[in-house]
Amino acid sequence: xxxxxxxxxxxxxxxxxxxxxxxxxxxxxxxxxxxxxxxxxxxxxxxxxxxxxxxxxxxxxxxxxxxxxxxxxxxxxxxxxxxxxxxxxxxxxxxxxxxxxxxxxxxxxxxxxxxxxxxxxxxxxxxxxxxxxxxxxxxxxxxxxxxxxxxxxxxxxxxxxxxxxxxxxxxxxxxxxxxxxxxxxxxxxxxxxxxxxxxxxxxxxxxxxxxxxxxxxxxxxxxxxxxxxxxxxxxxxxxxxxxxxxxxxxxxxxxxxxxxxxxxxxxxxxxxxxxxxxxxxxxxxxxxxxxxxxxxxxxxxxxxxxxxxxxxxxxxxxxxxxxxxxxxxxxxxxxxxxxxxxxxxx
Length: 346
Known about the structure:
Elements: E1 4-12, H1 14-34, H2 42-63, H3 69-75, E2 80-87, E3 98-104, E4 112-118, H4 125-133, E5 136-147, E6 150-164, E7 183-184, H5 212-223, E8 238-245, E9 248-257, H6 275-281, E10 287-292, H7 298-308, E11 309-310, E12 313-314, E13 316-320, H8 322-331, H9 335-345
Parallel strand pairs: 4-6, 7-13, 9-10, 10-13
Antiparallel strand pairs: 1-6, 2-3, 2-5, 3-4, 5-6, 8-9, 11-12
């Protein structure tokens, strides 16, 4: 169902938001503020103002569009970022006027992002506690400066990741699904539904014999797609508009990894600064899919999720590891064909 990724704001820098969104954005802020009933208690007024400024800031990020912090680090582009990432613990957030909080990223980046903020803009005790302990936060921030290898960010908004829906039967319940709401498994897709009838194999050893090109050919045949020749600048190894979830059609971009290195996928398998996921995320697909012939490690899952589930542009994502790849080929009677194609190429 349609669900929006939102930020439950606990930190809002009103001045910086107005500076960034400009005259048009500020006019929309004024319009929304005018709808708040007169006589609203001060504590409610601050909360409602926080949400007004957050919604306008998110709309601005969608319109630009603003990249995630990981995309900005990889491409060295963008002055405004919108992401969900883990913040390091900041014990001084209760006492200091201004604090510096590193953002903890999996993988190796040339620059280390760090959020610098004035604690006076923190209006939520929950947010202050989360910053104290270190937690996953959604945020919108301006890239302010570079000091050595430290990339300094000035935040407009910080808060907990939140889910919203216009479906009245789910309005009060959707939040409990958490950040994993956007993750799909291979058998969630209508075109791969037969996978449910194939038991999970003990291992994916046979996938070592199946080339990436052979798997791509079989995947395209299952989807009824044509294949294209690989080239170095492609956004994805395969792109399809013939995918659906519960009857709803979506587009999907696939990053495929064959047995050139038959070992669990780590971030090192995805290029410097995770540039292969960067390219995948730059495609216009509704669903981002990473497939590998072996296991897929948690840092890869977290990184794909960070690129896909952006507060201003949330998308679905899926990881298909070696065992699920084997189940997919088996379910659609493509295993022997994949082996034959791989042998022919060898």
